[in-house]
Each structure stands twice: as structure tokens, then as C-alpha cells.
Write a structure and sequence with these properties.
about 260 residues, mainly alpha, Four Helix Bundle (Hemerythrin (Met), subunit A), Helix Hairpins, 2 domains, 12 helices, flat
Length: about 260
């Protein structure tokens, strides 16, 4: 019993199980024979059962309060919990939910692979850096959202009669402006719109070109570039702080050596 307990508390063993589970989930996406599909399904549920046993052992070993004090344990517990309905259906042999929901359950089982994230080197430092970067960029993100929001409303009133597909309502317009805003394929929507109106109103076609060029320049180039620079700078700020602290420490040592030399 103690050997089994130590095995489930061994992070390398859990990492191996997660890796095997990822391969099984990957193979489940292919069209194999029904027998092989069922075998993969059974094996996946057995692995889920292994994770449940792991959670139970860890809860008993560390206690509920101590276990949930770790954010990674909370994360692991949530992912295993998402896979539980599918496991219960497999264990009981009943289908008490409709087919659509069963498909959702099959997707949630894939989330177990996200447990692999906790084994990434320096993942905690990376997550801390992302949190700092998001906080530092929050105001700019909000500003860019407001810019897209206002531009999408204006675009709806200007272009909905010419291109209902992209600007028929504020939601469609918001998504279309966002696609222009992200630079990738930004010219496709304006070009299609310009081609539609160019025969009846050449001046409006020119206005469309200027209008969307302005959106791209302000948001897609300047806006995103500023956000990106702040985001990256904030993420690596820990490294900068550490280097600055080392430089200050060296300067103090040099000053002490110079003082001793003068004496």
C-alpha cells in the first residue's frame, strides 16, 4: 500500500501518465475501427480514474486546506473534475444525457493534458510575468477596445447597406473591424467593400480606403505596437530588477574597496 501511495505522489510517474494520456487523446481523433476506438476510450477513462485516485491520495496526504493552498493543485483538481461526468457514464454504462452533451464531455476529457503545464521549467515565473504584463497593459487594452467599439458602430451606419455580410449589425461590424485591426488580411474587407461601391460612388470608394487605412495605422500599427512593447518590457522586468540589484551590489563592493584602499 505504501508503495502505491509513493507511486501516486511521484511527479515523474504522473508526468508519464499525462504524456500517455495525451497520445491516447490524439489517437482518438483518427478514424480507426470500432474495436480500437472503444479500446482507446476505455484506456482514456482508466487514466482518468488514475488521476482521481491521485487526487484522493494527495488530499489524504496533505489535508484539504494544505492541498488547495497550491494554485497548481486547484488547477489539477478542476481539470480532473471536468472529466468526471464522462468517467461516471463509462463506469455506470448509462447515457443519461443527450448526444450533444456527450460530445462536449469528450472534449472536456482532453483538458486533462493541460496538467502538463505545471511541469514546464520556470512556469511560475512565466505566469507571474504574464500577470504583471496584463495589469500594466490593461488601460491600453481598454482604450483599444473602446476604439474598436466606436469604429464598429460608425462602420455599421456607414456601410451596412453596401456590405451586410461584414457590417449588417454592430456585432458583425465589430468582428470585421477587429480583423482589419489585427493587420492579418486587413485589405480584404476594404477592397471588397470598395469594389462594391466604386461603380456607383467613386468618392465613397476613396473614403473607404482612407477610413480603413486610418484604422490600421492608429490601431493595428501604433496601438498594438505600444501594447506589445509594454507587455514584453513588463514580462522581463523581473530579470531587469535582478540585474540592477546585482549591479548595485557590485558598486557598493567597489566603493568599499576604494574606501579601504584610501585608508
Amino acid at each position: 500500500m505504501q508503495k502505491i501511495k509513493r507511486l501516486f505522489l511521484n511527479e515523474k510517474f504522473i508526468l508519464m501518465i499525462i504524456f500517455i494520456n495525451a497520445i491516447v487523446i490524439f489517437l482518438q481523433g483518427f478514424d480507426f475501427s470500432l474495436l480500437l476506438k472503444n479500446s482507446f476510450d476505455h484506456f482514456d477513462n482508466i487514466i482518468t480514474l488514475v488521476f482521481v485516485i491521485e487526487m484522493i491520495i494527495k488530499l489524504k496526504q496533505f489535508g484539504t486546506k494544505s492541498f488547495f493552498r497550491s494554485n497548481w493543485n486547484k488547477f489539477d483538481f478542476t481539470l480532473v473534475l471536468l472529466a468526471m461526468p464522462s468517467l461516471l457514464i463509462w463506469m455506470t454504462g448509462t447515457t443519461f444525457v443527450d448526444l450533444d452533451f456527450l460530445l462536449i464531455l469528450r472534449v472536456t476529457r482532453a483538458f486533462k493534458f493541460f496538467r502538463f503545464l505545471r511541469f514546464f521549467p520556470q512556469i511560475d515565473e512565466l505566469i507571474s510575468g504574464v500577470k504583471r504584463a496584463i495589469k500594466a497593459s490593461l488601460v491600453l487594452f481598454l482604450g483599444l477596445f473602446i476604439f474598436i467599439f466606436i469604429t464598429s458602430i460608425v462602420s455599421t451606419f456607414l456601410f451596412k447597406d453596401f456590405s451586410a455580410e461584414y457590417f449588417g449589425d454592430p456585432m458583425k461590424s465589430f468582428y470585421s473591424v477587429f480583423k482589419v485591426f489585427t493587420v492579418e488580411g486587413w485589405y480584404e474587407i476594404p477592397d471588397q467593400l470598395s469594389e462594391t461601391v466604386s461603380k456607383d460612388s467613386p468618392k465613397l470608394a476613396v473614403f473607404i480606403t482612407i477610413f480603413f487605412s486610418f484604422i490600421l495605422l492608429v490601431g493595428g500599427i501604433f496601438g498594438l505596437s505600444i501594447v506589445n512593447s509594454i507587455f514584453v518590457d513588463t514580462m522581463v522586468s523581473d530579470n531587469n530588477d535582478e540585474l540592477e540589484a546585482k549591479v548595485e551590489s557590485l558598486e557598493r563592493k567597489i566603493d568599499l574597496l576604494l574606501e579601504q584602499k584610501d585608508k
